[in-house]
Amino acid sequence: MIDYIRTEWYGLSYLLHMKGVLFPRLLPVMILGGVLAGLVASEEVDVMDWCEDDDGNRLFEHPYAFQLFGLVFGYMSVARLNISINRYFEGVTNIKVMHSKWGDAALQIVVFDRLTDDNMSLYDEPFCMHIMHQFKQLSALATIFLHGEAMKRPTPPAEMRQKSHSKMPIPLGEVGRRPSTLDHAVHVVKAESKALAHGMAEALHTHEDMVELHAQFNAAELEYFDGVHSLVEAQISRILRSITTRHQAGGVKAPPPIVSRVFQELSNGVLAYNNACKMKEVPVPFALVHFGAVLLAFFNFTAPVVIACFTGNLAMSIVSAIIVVSGFSALWLVANELEDPFGYDANDMPMIRYHNEFCEFLDNTTRRPWMAKDRWTVKAGANPAASADGPMSSPEPSPVVARRNDAASSSAAFSSAPPPAKV
Fold it and tell me: In which domain, by residue range, is 314 found?
């Protein structure tokens, strides 16, 4: 999507912006319209005889018939443009609602799970980090599908694995401390995921922006998704499994009717996602697009001739034909540009930016979920937590805590490695 500054100088500053504009694609029809109008209006070529027969009857005796065609074609062009604009903003609404609902669900489950926790950072809580990582993967899967990418599991070359493992630095914790087995396992998994992502991009010709999305999945998760028809629904199943088993184990301490709001918000996000998928899977009906293409081709060839016949002047015929032909062609191109707002064109939605903003929101939730004075321990009166600690906020995580964050966010670390020891 093109971000621009709105101006008061009648849009003159917009003329200096060349990214995402239509002029390069309009050049062929502009040249065609100008050449046809110039040939008809030129006295040297004497093509004006096309407009009269041997009896002196003019081909275009009155412009009424072509005006009627122009009105009908203009109405159809504007109608299709309205359809495309409505699809574009409907897509933006669905993506925003999807991320909003999933963000609300992630925030609620974290708050419900840590009702009795005094900590002001969630980096030491494996379940919170795991559920946040699952929501990030959920957003990544939705973005991958709406971009039209494929989620497969190609085997990366052996040299790619060795290169990624050899160049991955093994982190030293504090000075003098040897790297633990967990630290090494986590970075091996991250290196393998990166190698798989680059191998996937090379095998499927994936767009470069998609590489980071694919890198959020390790080898075990890619194997789990291999052969799954609906990846987003499979990821929703994983999230529901995590929440329900956590609740059964004694976590998620809010009452069950309150916890059910998490499932409702998840469902609302899936509904918005499916509405966006509807726009991706069902294009504008082909009959309408085909009929518009036929009328556009007929208009581009006949309009310059009609304009030259009734204008007479060579220069004015060429200028008028170029403006009219390029104007109707621009309506067609803009409609094509906005019909599918989930692509990679300059005027499409910034799906990657929306995903990154969603992940940043989740990171902020785990880093600074609340303040000390926000936890109330009395039914009435002053809050002891506020009077004792004041409006504190958690500092930035230390390197040791950051490694715990990486460990908690990796599914392989959850399944194969013990939780990190307290420092």
Answer: 20-49+61-88+286-339
